[in-house]
């Protein structure tokens, strides 16, 4: 049996505030040593993910922008792979809607409803950096978006949020929420992408057990699509209280500390969390 690991980044493998994965180093080394595929499945852009691919020397497929794109390195699988197009050295399976359509729709919704928003497309790199705590270079990479627009509602109230989400639905699009932001997306989510990629791994290796790790609502579709779903704690030491599915295992530890605990329990000790 082979394990395949799908992981969220912000607030899960990397710390919500510092964006560091240092606390997860022991478990990351364990996966390398055992040659277990680690698949990033995040709201982050391809350009942002490629930084982690290089830093962690993690040459596996990855899933960008809430399931918008699945990027599979050429010749990674031996099986005959169906994909939508080639981009550099990737075969790309595209599930998302084009960024410009999503961004234009969001702006239109904000104007017609009179509800003010701020979105990455209308923010400078400096503003994204200040709002996220990302350094300037990383903030620039977060703005190179393909399948998902990121936004905040100014002076957010429940009423304003539900009106915006209703209008996004009427326009034929979907929404989700990460640790910091709302997102407008097309007919994709992390779960759909995880199911497609898991099926490909199952064709290649037959006996596969999938593990998924996340912290927030936008991880729920991913957690619902794996064999072993794991929720790490958020800053303040709580698990996201809106995630109540009893099948999801709650691991102790905030972000990468919880990530490290979960991987070492399951992979090293072979035990339940
Ligand atoms: O919505 C959010 O809070 C995060 C969630 O990212 P994950 O899916 O948790 O990796 O994503 C946005 O903000 C990040 C910076 O905090 C950016 O790096 C991402 O590109 C953006 O989508």
From TrEMBL:
GO terms classed as biological process: mannosylglycerate biosynthetic process
Gene Ontology molecular function, alphabetical: magnesium ion binding; mannosyl-3-phosphoglycerate phosphatase activity
Gene3D superfamilies: HAD superfamily/HAD-like, Putative mannosyl-3-phosphoglycerate phosphatase, domain 2
Cellular component GO terms held in the UniProt record: cytosol
EC number(s) stated in the UniProt entry for this protein: 3.1.3.70
One Pfam family linked to the record: Hydrolase_3
Alphabetized UniProt keyword annotations: Hydrolase, Magnesium, Metal-binding
Domain of life: Archaea
Protein name: Mannosyl-3-phosphoglycerate phosphatase
Organism: Methanococcoides vulcani
């Amino acid at each position: 049996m082979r394990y395949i690991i799908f992981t969220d980044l912000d607030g899960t493998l990397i710390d919500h505030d510092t964006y560091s994965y240092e606390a997860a180093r022991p478990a990351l080394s364990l996966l390398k040593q055992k040659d277990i595929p680690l698949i990033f499945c995040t709201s982050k852009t391809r350009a942002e993910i490629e930084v982690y691919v290089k830093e962690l020397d993690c040459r596996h497929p990855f899933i960008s922008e809430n399931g918008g794109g699945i990027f599979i390195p050429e010749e990674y699988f031996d099986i005959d792979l169906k994909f939508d197009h080639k981009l550099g050295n990737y075969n790309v399976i595209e599930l998302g809607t084009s960024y410009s359509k999503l961004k234009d729709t969001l702006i239109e919704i904000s104007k017609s409803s009179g509800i003010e928003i701020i979105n990455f497309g209308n923010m400078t790199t400096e503003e994204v950096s200040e709002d996220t705590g990302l350094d300037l270079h990383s903030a620039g990479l977060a703005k190179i978006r393909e399948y998902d627009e990121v936004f905040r509602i100014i002076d957010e109230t429940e009423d304003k949020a539900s009106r915006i989400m209703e209008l996004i639905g009427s326009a034929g699009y979907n929404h989700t929420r990460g640790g910091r932001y709302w997102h407008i997306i097309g007919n994709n989510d992390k779960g759909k992408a995880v199911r497609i990629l898991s099926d490909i791994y199952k064709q290649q290796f037959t006996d596969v057990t999938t593990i998924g790790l996340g912290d927030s609502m936008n991880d729920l579709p991913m957690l619902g699509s794996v064999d072993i779903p794991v929720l790490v704690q958020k800053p303040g030491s709580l698990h996201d209280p809106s995630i109540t599915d009893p099948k999801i295992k709650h691991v102790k530890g905030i972000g990468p500390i919880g990530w490290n605990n979960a991987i070492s329990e399951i992979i090293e000790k072979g035990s339940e969390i």
